[in-house]
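Subject: complex prediction, re-run

Hi both,

The earlier run crashed halfway through, so I resubmitted it with identical inputs.
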Amino acid sequence: MVQVANTSPTLDEQKNELKTRIRKLNSKAGQMKMDLHDIAEGLPADLEKLPEAATKTYDIFCQLQDLRQQLKVLENS
Amino acid sequence: MVQVANTSPTLDEQKNELKTRIRKLNSKAGQMKMDLHDIAEGLPADLEKLPEAATKTYDIFCQLQDLRQQLKVLENS
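This time it finished cleanly. Structure:
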């Protein structure tokens, strides 16, 4: 296989980059999930924190699903 | 004290009505808080239920705070 300088990332590089992003996001998502869990448990204390915590948790899990889907596509290609 | 027919509710009646509403709402709020707690715990399963559950839980606790405030005002009047 001919290697050309300054090519776009290889498939393996793309996969590894995705895996790294997923790993980081997954750890963040786990933390947010626990925070939301604690807020729910402690209601009505911290009620004002609930909307933002729920929105952020939802968004990060959606993003995570999306990245996992992208990885799946790369792994099947 | 002179009793007149068709008067507006007495202070005691207003307080009792508020207390009943608060009791019912409190029980509902407790249930929603537990549901939200379970959703958070089980993420990413049921992710699609999170936004609505969080919004409803937030709204009901806000309503509860409002009714409790109204009762406080009545009790100090």
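Residues 36 and 42 of chain A are 10 Å apart (CA to CA).

- K.
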